[in-house]
């Protein structure tokens, strides 16, 4: 069972680790890479303990995503706003 569920927007991009991270209670960081997100993975693991979290995100938003720019420790991008299909008559 997952320790917690965390929205991707609450995670931070770590340039050094090349992964989205979130603080673990043990003092280390839960980590999930962009490649894992592209593959549909939703589990971020802590390399220092046995805990893991479930990452809540829309896999379609990360199919062709590039690593965030702007230096290290960048917040994950919010999902683009959903615009409903408008039927024109």
From TrEMBL:
Q: Which InterPro entries match?
A: DPH3/4-like (IPR044248), DPH_MB_dom (IPR007872), DPH_MB_sf (IPR036671)
- Please name the Pfam families in this protein's record: Zn_ribbon_CSL
Which keywords has UniProt assigned to this entry? Iron, Metal-binding
Tree of life domain? Eukaryota
GO MF terms here are: metal ion binding
The record places domain DPH-type MB at: 2-58
| Reactions the enzyme catalyzes | [3Fe-4S](1+)-[protein] + Fe(2+)-[Dph3] = [3Fe-4S](0)-[protein] + Fe(3+)-[Dph3]; 2 [3Fe-4S](0)-[protein] + 2 Fe(2+)-[Dph3] + NADH = 2 [4Fe-4S](1+)-[protein] + 2 [Dph3] + NAD(+) + H(+)
Disordered, as annotated region: 61-89
User: What's a single GO BP term from this record?
Assistant: protein histidyl modification to diphthamide
Which pathway does this chain act in?
Answer: Protein modification; peptidyl-diphthamide biosynthesis
Family, as annotated? Belongs to the DPH3 family.
What the entry lists under PANTHER family is as follows: DIPHTHAMIDE BIOSYNTHESIS PROTEIN 3 (PTHR21454:SF31), DPH3 HOMOLOG-RELATED (PTHR21454)
What name does the UniProt record give this protein? Diphthamide biosynthesis protein 3
- Where is the organism placed in the taxonomic lineage, from the top? Eukaryota, Viridiplantae, Chlorophyta, core chlorophytes, Chlorophyceae
């Amino acid at each position: 069972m997952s320790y917690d569920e965390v929205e991707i927007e609450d995670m931070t991009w770590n340039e050094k680790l090349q992964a989205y991270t979130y603080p673990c209670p043990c003092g280390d960081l839960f980590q999930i890479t962009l490649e894992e997100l592209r593959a549909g993975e939703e589990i971020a693991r802590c390399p220092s303990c046995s805990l893991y979290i479930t990452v809540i995100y829309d896999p379609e938003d990360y199919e062709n995503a590039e690593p965030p720019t702007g230096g290290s420790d960048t917040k994950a991008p919010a999902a683009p706003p959903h615009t409903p299909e408008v039927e024109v008559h």
